Amino acid sequence: MELYSVIIADDEEQIRAGISRKINWEELDLKLIGEAENGAEALELCEQLRPDVLLTDIKMPFMDGLELCRKLKQSLPTAKMIVFSGFDDFEYARRAVSSGVFEYIMKPINANELGDVLTRLREKLDTERLEKRDMEALRHQYEESLPVLRELFYTRLLDGHIPSDEINERALRFDNEISKQKWTVVLIRINAQKSLSYDELVLLSVRGFIEQHFQLDVSSVRTLLYNDMVTLLVQTEHIYPLIQEMQRLCYLVSCYLGINICAGIGRAYTAENLKFSTKEDKNALDNQLLIGDTEVLYIGDIEPKQTARLSFDEQDMQALENAIKFGTEQDIHLFIDALMKRVRETRFTLAQCHLFFLEIITALVRLARSVDVEEDFSTSFTNFVSISDFNSLDDLSSWLCSHCTNLQELVGQKRFDSASKTINKAKDFISCHFTESDISVDTLCDYLHLSSTYFSTLFKRETGKSFIAYVTELRMEMAANMLTQTDEKTYLIAEKIGYTDPNYFSYVFKKHYGLTPSKYRAGKRS
Predict the structure, then answer these.
(1) Is residue 27 domain-shared with residue 126, that is, in the same domain?
(2) Residues 488, 343: one domain?
(3) Domain boundary among 269, 302, 335
(4) DSSP H or E segment with residue 254
(5) Is the pLDDT confidence value at 99 over 60?
(6) pLDDT, position 192
(7) The predicted structure's pLDDT at residue 351
(8) What is the chain's percent helix, strand, coil content, to nearest 5?
(9) What is the mean pLDDT of residues 201-208?
(10) Cβ(213)–Cβ(252) under 8 Å?
């Protein structure tokens, strides 16, 4: 079994050594991985090594034990903490227990008592570990339920009950990627027969037979049970080969299983619109009564043909926006190529594409306006542009790619300028307030109206330093200057640059420059 890791924090080396020596760590399934002599060092060590257990004194330099525990509750919420205290700190220690500390122990520390506490703590850690294993068991149960959940997913997809932006994410949970290609839904209804008792076993039998004998060469086909019908989800836009295959399967089912079935076929749609194909299937099957004894019905043969239309819809607009704001130049070319392919497939002339072209231009102007680059982007249109200005679809495609790429560059520059302005504003704030003891990321982010997580990432990326490191460097530079240029006392210098504890200031200064403030001053003046 893996041992639980422990860190000891106490400013008395004798106490740390005593605990380390007197406790049989391995017998308790524990291992000592580090020691710290003050609260600030303990915090840094814990965030680096991430122990399971912290043993800490209450009174320590630079940061007391309760403050240390409070901070670790944020960064290491699963860590268990044991606090040592003197008799005079009794009430102080009681507050430690109420604030989430596992146990407090009165000094002087008794090895047997500490051993008992560690035993109870180890038992609690064991219990939590078992609970994690139970979660693994639940995950295994979930995996066993995947076939049922997969069937439910497809049922809800065909009913149109899954938001379009969630379809692929949910499909991937079942190791099934729903591609952006078009799919056709086939609903297979079992016709009532006097000699056949209709039940789920009949459905399963028909489903299994079709899965085994389906031979059409398509990229993907999935079978499921949907509303007392066997359903095929076929990735294809070629309807008539699918009709022929379903006619063959209906004949085979009748011959081998003695079951008469009827198949309704809808038009091909992308995944988010499969509910339309499903409705068309149902309409096709409803027409069997009117048409007569027909085994396969295609909605396109039943309903009047619709005039082909080109439309730049919300889905297209979102895809174009994503390509410009988050994609590459190649993504833009791929998107425009796909648009031009749609135009070619309709066999429209350029003149017939006028409205489609205006919809694309409107989308680009709306995007430019939303990111506040409308004025710069609009300068690329010297006059009003018309579809008649182009001689071919290739000319139109090149023009669109050029202006989309231009807009992409403007958006990128705007994003860069915005980030630079934010960092410059942050630096100005820090330069005005770094001498205040309560300056923090949170106060700065309140001023900037940004989340601390986003700001910290942005600040580190732009400056190469964390917020704390940046503030500390400013303070150290100011302190070094005051030490060499003035005769101010060290504690006054510490106070003026934002340190309420002069000892902690000396500790940080030595860590930064390798010398204590007094030695640094002496060295500069010698």
Answers:
(1) yes
(2) no
(3) 302
(4) helix 239-257
(5) no
(6) 64
(7) 62
(8) 65, 10, 25
(9) 88
(10) yes
DSSP string across 450-471: --HHHHHHHHHHHHSS-HHHHH
Contacts 24+ apart (CB under 8 A), 409-415: 410/368, 410/371, 410/373, 410/376, 410/377, 411/324, 411/325, 411/371, 411/373, 414/371, 414/372, 414/373
Q: Which residue has the higher pLDDT, 277 or 192?
A: 277
- Asked if omega into 108 is within 30° of 0 (cis), the reply is yes
Q: Which tokens sit at 148?
A: 């049922």
pLDDT tier at 98, thresholds 50, 70, 90 = low
pLDDT digit string (tens) for 397-430? 888 888 888 888 887 777 666 677 888 888 899 8
Same domain (yes/no): 183, 283: yes
Report the CATH number that the domain containing residue 88 is assigned in CATH: 3.40.50.2300
Residues 192-222 as b/e (b if ≥16 CB within 10 A, e otherwise) read: eeeeeeeeeebbeebbebbeeebebebeebe
**475 vs 302: which has the higher pLDDT:** 475
* Residue 342 in tokens: 């749609």
| Residue type present at position 111 | A
CA angle at 501 for the pair 495 and 502, rounded to the nearest 5°: 70
Pull the structure tokens for residue 517: 């403030």
> Do residue 240 and residue 279 come from a single domain?
yes
Q: What is the pLDDT of residues 293-317, one digit of tens each?
A: 668 888 877 664 445 567 788 888 8
Q: Are 251 and 178 in contact (CB under 8 A)?
A: no
Please indicate, yes or no, whether residues 24 and 90 belong to a single structural domain of this protein.
Answer: yes
Instruction: Dig out the tokens for 397 from the structure.
Output: 């495609």
Length of the chain: 526
Q: Is 387 exposed, middle or buried (0-12, 13-18, 19+ CB in 10 A)?
A: middle
Instruction: Give the structural domain span for 460.
Output: 434-525
**Which of 19, 28, 173 shows the shortest CA–CA distance to 108?**
19
What would the mean pLDDT of 238-242 be, rounded to a whole number? 89
Same structural domain for residues 251 and 275?
Answer: yes
CATH number for the domain that contains residue 463: 1.10.10.60
Average pLDDT over residues 182-199: 74
Domain final residue, candidates 117, 141, 165: 141
Tokens 């011959």, residue located: 255
What's the average model confidence in pLDDT over 7-16?
91
Model confidence at 290, pLDDT cuts 50, 70, 90, reads very low
Are both 69 and 117 inside the same structural domain?
Answer: yes
| Global pTM value | 0.37
**Ordered DSSP codes for 121-161:** HHHHHHHHHHHHHHHHHHHHHHHHTHHHHHHHHHHHHHHT-
The two tokens of residue 515 are 């010398």
- Alpha-helical (H) ranges within 287-328 are 288-291, 299-302, 314-326
How many whole angstroms separate alpha carbon 508 and alpha carbon 386? 67
Give how many domains the chain has, as a whole number: 4
**394 & 458 share domain:** no
